[in-house]
């Protein structure tokens, strides 16, 4: 249906525009350069025949494909982000196309001897015989999430060119700053006006996700007392020792390196300490809301205990919720996951439904009133030099979008 060449060219057009976001910026978008792709996307959406194309003051791009059925069917949306991760440079991306991948090592960069190898990245073996797009080893690729954008635009173009495929009203939305956790922050859910949506921001072909972590961040501040070490007996309070007690009192096996699947954790991200003051930065993650709340309580209790033990407020712990598991919001409308699952099956993809050990823009959007599961965009090894995407997976994702549109138009709004 969609030619490999066409989708490859579109993808390369996007990834060669640098759109790295910046967590240290307060503006939206966080970097000016994101406008370059945002403006281009708005133009392209007009060119392919989309309607109500808009770009707001924060660079959020939206557009509509009007319904072509008489029936009153739901309005659905497809969402992707155009920024790339600040974890690795996204400037001067030089995509390499490897046709008919034979299953061996791919030399990304001869001078620096950077090799993409299936011995390390086993997923590569899933794509033998396919066309892979990789980096040249010096940048990330940006398939996260420009593959998603490419698929959404290609699907809309296909539906416009093939009006015999019946679909309801479709909204598309492209956002800045997802990689710094703000993609949903200024997303105008009301203006978007969809009954539900899908982010096209997953990885491997078949992925379909509607569960993610509940997430909080904790800052533990420990106050000490500095006194001349020669005359400190009974006077000095060394905040680093108290902080160490705090660290060691949390369950050592409930950490990222010891957990998987549905197991939650406390993750100590940073320690900054001297005698007078030590700060611990934690993140707390758990799929289960009760366990999540219990984890926060454990930290608070430990704080109280240590304060009692030292007879004063030596520790202050501040915990802030970051996002919640979208499952709570998706379960009442589980048919939106069923439709995506059915769409995949109908075009010969085995759905891989699993819980995300992280968050997505979709989790925030779900709590903002737009239920929003996540679908694969096809790429692997995000946020680094080994990132790659099989062109065939992008085509399949495009087909999934078209099929979801078609399936949704078969049932009237009830
Ligand atoms: Zn992404």
UniProtKB/TrEMBL annotation:
Coiled-coil residue windows: none
Gene3D superfamilies on file: 3.30.70.360, Zn peptidases (3.40.630.10)
Domain annotation Peptidase M20 dimerisation: ranges: 210-311
Top enzyme class: hydrolase
Cofactor dependency: Zn(2+)
Location of the protein in the cell: Cytoplasm
Catalytic activity, EC: 3.4.11.4
GO biological process: peptide catabolic process; proteolysis
Principal subcellular localization: cytoplasm
Entry annotation: catalytic residues: 83, 178
Reactions catalysed: Release of the N-terminal residue from a tripeptide
Family matches, as Pfam families: M20_dimer, Peptidase_M20
List of residues binding Zn(2+) 2: 144, 179, 383
One Gene Ontology term of the molecular function aspect: tripeptide aminopeptidase activity
Protein name: Peptidase T
Taxonomic classification: Bacteria, Pseudomonadati, Bacteroidota, Flavobacteriia, Flavobacteriales
UniProt gene name: pepT
